[in-house]
Amino acid sequence: MMRPCDYRMRDGRICARSSLPEDDYCILHSSFETKEVTAFNAEMKALLKAKNYDFSGFVFPRDVNLGDMGFARGIPVSFAGARFAYGMRMDLERLDNDIDFSNVIFTRAASFSNNTFFGSIRFSRAEFRADTSFALTVVRGNARFDGAVFYGKADFSNIDIQKETSFAGVKFVKEAAFSGAVFGAATDFEKAVFNEDANFANASFIADTKFSYGSFHGKGIFANAHFIGPSTFTKTDFYKESNFSNAVFVTYPDVREARFNVRLDFMSKIKRAGRRGVR
């Protein structure tokens, strides 16, 4: 007699599907590379038909396109703790659901570019082990990437996030591109680590923005960026030459105890708008 699958789902219940022979987990949660794709797909099809979008901890054995899933509008979707052994992409153009990818592992390239999320997105503590793209994406809800790690190139160029955003504690191992990005509400990059160049050229930060306690090991490029709300770079380390040419700050940035290890005449590089006085 096969044991029930031991995986604990998002709502706290045990999965309880029949485990595979010689495994403690079912066809959906097993990490066995030899598990049958046809059986996996049949289980997925049944869940989608029932509008049960709790895919917590699933191990996907083939490329995944969210556009093939046909989510009903407004029902939360969870991939929390899932693992995508192959590629992941989203060819939906729009998604009307809150979606949770927290603690997910993306083994290969992941693309969410050129889409609109009408709900909130969550990628907290996710691992992106290859190149990732959110270029030209619109997020109408909140976006959380806190604690995520990007091992490949991370492309967020021209992303538009309209509510609160968190990249707190994120580690970017390769280049990070945020050129032309728009952050429409409070934005948090506290303790973020950029191992290579970070490009925020022409980005717009509409509300409070925090880069405090972060570190830029490559170039920090903020040329022509606009900081409409208060901005803080307290105790942030810039290890290489950074570019703030023509950056616009409506209020002066808080750069107390920030360290520019390559000399940067910071205040002469920016355009000053609003009240005078450096904190």
From the N-terminal CA to the C-terminal CA, the straight-line distance is: 69 Å
What share of the residues does DSSP label as strand, in percent?
25-35%
> Which structural class fits the helix and strand makeup?
mainly beta
Report the total helices. 2
**Silhouette:** elongated
Task: Estimate the mean pLDDT confidence.
Answer: 91
Proportion of residues in helical segments: under 10%
Unreliable segments (pLDDT under 50, ≥5 consecutive)?
275-279
Query: How large, in whole angstroms, is the Cα Rg?
Result: 21 Å
Largest sheet: 10 strands, parallel
Strand order of the largest sheet: 1-4-8-12-16-20-24-28-32-34
Beta strands, count? 35
Summarize the structure.
The protein has helices at 37-49, 266-269, and strands at residues 59-60, 64-65, 77-78, 83-84, 88-89, 94-95, 99-100, 105-106, 110-111, 116-117, 121-122, 127-128, 132-133, 138-139, 143-144, 149-150, 154-155, 160-161, 165-166, 171-172, 176-177, 182-183, 187-188, 193-194, 198-199, 204-205, 209-210, 215-216, 220-221, 226-227, 231-232, 237-238, 248-249, 259-260, 271-272. It has 279 residues and is mainly beta. Residues 275-279 have low confidence and may be disordered.
